[in-house]
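Q: Could you predict the 3D structure of Biotin synthase?
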Amino acid sequence: MLRTDWTRAEIRALFDLPFTELVFRAAQVHRAHQAADEVQLCTLLSIKTGGCPEDCGYCSQSAHHGSGLKAEKLMDVNSVLSAAAEAKAAGSQRFCMGAAWRSPKERDMPKVVAMIEGVKAMGLETCMTLGMLDEGQARTLADAGLDYYNHNLDSSPEYYERVTSTRTYQDRLDTLENVRNAGVSVCCGGIVGMGETREDRIGFVHALATLPRHPESVTVNALVPIRGTPLGDMLADTPMARVDDIEFVRVVAAARIACPMSMIRLSAGRESMSEAAQALCFMAGANSIFTGDKLLTTGNAGDSADAALFAKLGLRAMEGDEPMRVAAE
Ligand code: SF4
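A: Sure. Here are the predicted structure tokens for Biotin synthase:
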């Protein structure tokens, strides 16, 4: 049922469908595998902000760029646990913790492990995004009980070198493999609107759909242009390069069809999307969002705006486990 042998031509054919036909097909696939009125709520906290040695062209946290963001130390465990408790009280199912690292250092691992154990003990799912992991680090996180690891492919293999120069696409694939081999579920996605072509967007969905196993969660971000970052400056100076909502929905729909049992998560960039555009994304199979008013270092829609949107659209917070994890049990 879950194909990992998609060809680029097949993904391209999805993008080439008339928009309404593509959304209709994505909605059919969504209903065949998941409850279409349920949306998963996740919360993302930056546990270590700024000063990152990587040079991702979209990121305000890179030490290479002049975004003006102040670097901070790794948060203490208690502060992370109180943020997790707040997220749970607000209805979140999953608590994601992100650190601006190339990869975690050995001295940080005991704190990271304590965060995973503490958040899990509250009955929340745990997710971390800490940069590249070797096999041993992936096993340490798995032993602590980590449910998910986020590591994005960002774009197509061809466009990747325009996004970052401090690591390769293969580095990303290697970490994803280490995470899988350690038995941790995978959250993996990318960013639309970085100046890439449609062919790159096709390549991005193709890369996700042809991983040895589809990611349990697929994040689809819209670039939030931040002044001082190369891609943010490029978009601010050439607003015409920005991807429109219809093309963004096409990416969501193609990802839904290619990865039918994955959760498709609307992530960065949702704050500036209209309610109508978000509704189209939900029709096209998106079924997970980040809640709260902050996403790492950028703004997010906020709980009250989301509650109002859910009421308008008749959506409800998902309570059960994700389909791919249920299927694996
Ligand atoms: S996206 Fe992550 S790895 Fe890249 S610069 Fe930002 S914090 Fe570092």
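Q: Anything worth pointing out?
A: The chain has one domain: 8-319.
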